[in-house]
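SEVERITY: medium
COMPONENT: batch folding queue
REPORTER: lab tech (J.R.)

DESCRIPTION
The queue accepted two submissions in a row. Attaching both inputs and their returned structure tokens so the on-call engineer can compare them side by side.

ATTACHMENT 1
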Amino acid sequence: MPHTPTPPAHALEPAPPSTPRYPAHAAPSWGAPIPGATPRQRLAVRSLEHHALHLGVELLCERRRIRRGRRDPRRLLALQREYGRALVSAQVARVALHRTAVAS
């Protein structure tokens, strides 16, 4: 019968619960309705999300161009930076709007 090694002591202890960056109620998913928000606020958040989505598609197309040999690394870096900023601003806007809607 083969010998199975004993796991280290720390592997036998229960893992600590993971703490998400935002509680589940404070970080709604994209496109989800935000109760208590005005139509103008919802439109602002949706337009930020749409802009980030559009940049993501552009980034994928640019990566495909690079794979096919038409390289422009400066454009790729600029798109990556802009996409990252757009993602962050869309998520920050959604979380902030959700928190103010829940608080009121």
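ATTACHMENT 2
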Amino acid sequence: MKPVYEWDEVKRRSNRTKHGVDFTEMEAFEWEDEVCFNPLP
């Protein structure tokens, strides 16, 4: 099951300008294929 995302349009444009990443790209992200870990301190 894919998550549903909502965002503020002004914040989306600001993020795209500042960081080069558009929130709409999250919709294509494959969470099931990613591995996350927390390194030890």
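NOTES FROM REPORTER
Residues 9-19 form the longest helix (11 residues).
No errors were logged for either attachment.
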